[in-house]
Amino acid sequence: MNLSQHLGRRVIAVRHLCPQLGALRHRFAERGGEKLESGHSSGTMADVAKKIREHVGVEAGYHIIPKSREGLLKFQPKQDELPNRSMVDSYTTAKVLLETDAVMRQRFVYGRGLLRMGRIIEELDLLAVWICHLHIHLPNLPEGVPLPYTFITLLVDHAHFLQEEFIADADVSLSGHVSWTDKSYMEVTAYVRQNGMLLAKGIFVVEARNAVNNGPAPVNPLVPATKLEESLYQEAQKRRANATTRLESQLPTKEEQQLMYELFTRTKGADGPSPSDMSTLPPNSRWMSKWRRRTLVHPFPENRNESNTIFGGFIIRKAIEISYMTVSLYTNQRCMIRSIADVTFTHSIPVHSYIKLKAYVVFTHKNFIQLLTVVNAIGSNSFEERRCNVLHLTYSCSNVVPEILPRSYHEALWYLTGRRYFNRYHDSVSHDIVNEAKGGIE
Fold first, then answer.
1. Which domains does the chain show, CATH number per domain?
2. CA-wise closest residue to 439 among 28, 33, 21
3. What is the pLDDT of residues 290-344, one digit of tens each?
4. Which pTM value belongs to this model?
């Protein structure tokens, strides 16, 4: 089977899935009529941000040298002192008030009136941190003492956007719970809804650190309390087991090597490669090397988290925004983000840094386009640059897009990585729909 036939079948399948995605029922997480819910509400997302600051005892306002938290280290518990927790213990909901708050609505919309997906993920990342706060229970912590923990987002495993368009003037409901734990790590499953309709789902991996953020801190073991929680826990265990090897680090398979050769033969020209011109661009296609966009961002203290580094949600938002602009320029049409995968946080970004963002179009087929976005930090004192984040994003467009083609071996590897992430997106969407059809897990 050649490249076009192989991918054509998968893309047709995904295009058939899209209408079904928009029709997913309002159900937090259930199987056979049983629902995971607690009735706990955290108010608005502004309330969530305030509660996080109060919970860890962070002073209001920005301080170049923040108040020392070393005194809290003595309150860090040992693992055997922590009681078991269930998923319902950390389950909560929070609102983004778009219907009645015009100022808030202005922050969440594009010029065309559509909701900014980067803003949605930024809020979802904040909620994931708050859910970790709710999961942690220290029975021996004296009353009035701040939580001697710091929480760092290590990974956004994936986030799927299941609706064609969000509504700009209806409240957004965010919810979620801890779905897996291991020593100092927690996985959080979070959902986004409007008018009772499931619109997005995200999986975050958060690390618990000690009060001064220089070492790990133990977390309460997660023990499923119901059959539903056990089912969710098993799903999370499979995700974490499969996440040990990243797609871009895998060697090309025999099938992929064949695809690389087919790409080469399509671009070598009618007379084959020559020293003067090694490649020829086929019709309705573009070179990958010509389609990369970059920008610099100057973050400020308002973009920091409680650890006094740049908030991970802000970084993801900026990465989504440059990828959206790149897709729009590449296609000359309005596109919809469908998935973000394997958002890694290798290094934290200090407040006094600059951020360099680079977006690359690495794979296309029919009306789908895959991007790789890289986030680097540049120190404002040393001006040294280092990689901090990598994101893989899938977009769908209204019409067929020009094909992207690699011109070098290095770009061909990027092409294969983009193809892998596109295929994984298709498989995971199929899995969600099968579960929904069975009355299963969103």
1. 1-35+252-442 (3.10.129.10), 36-244 (3.10.129.10)
2. 33
3. 999 999 999 998 998 888 889 999 999 999 999 999 999 999 988 999 999 999 8
4. 0.86
